[in-house]
Amino acid sequence: MTAYQQLQDATQEARTWLLTTPIVNRALAGNVSLEEYLAFLGQAYHHVRFTVPLMMACGARLPDRLDWLRTALVEYIEEEHGHEKWILDDIRAAGGDADTAAAALPDPATRLMVAWIRDAVEHGNPVAFFGMVQVLEGTSTALATQAAERLQASLSLPNNAVRYLTSHGSLDIGHLAFFEEQINQLGADDLAVVIDSANMFYRLYGAMFRGIEARCQSGSAVEELSDALA
Q1: Nearest to 42 by CA among 229, 167, 215, 230
Q2: Is the dihedral of CA 181, 84, 216, 159 positive or negative?
Q3: Measuring CA to CA, which residue among 220, 187, 193, 228 is closest to residue 66?
Q4: Contact 70, 174 (CB under 8 A)
Q5: pLDDT, position 224
Q6: Most buried one in 49, 120, 152, 175, CB count within 10 A?
Q7: What is the pLDDT of residues 89-117, one digit of tens each?
């Protein structure tokens, strides 16, 4: 069994928990409100804007045995640079206030996602960053294109209001194949770190979606966070 397949198998339960999130299933069915879509974009902005700085921090902290991973990080940085601006453009095109979204405090789960992975990179084994890649790019490949098509149709959105989703649905297919190549070169100890990181990130990313749904339905993501993480 390859290292990548071990990663897939060891994270299946957490991945299923994310993919069965009610709002995710509603998005795939085109049954999400404009308020929920804009809320998702707002939270996406607040974690995507840290992606490149986190990759740079990861590259700076990789031990010599993982020096070869810096080449992968350079490619990721080139691909991901500026994507947070795409999200703000989508918010504007969908009729939202991009400046307000950018200035808002992120929801609790979003803040925890960024804080957790930053701590893992800066104070643990920096290869933990690739657990985040597993979650975000794998989820995009599985869901983004279909969700974008359904949301665009149901909400009558222009093409330039779903750029973030449509681009990542197609872009991340190639990224995921490249990611698999890198994972298959990891030793057992580093692979264990990636698995642990991915399992944590699946939980936090799923909690982010549950928080969005709770906030849009009841006005408070904070009240639901403990239940979402349980």
Answers
A1: 215
A2: negative
A3: 187
A4: no
A5: 47
A6: 120
A7: 999 999 999 999 999 999 999 999 999 99
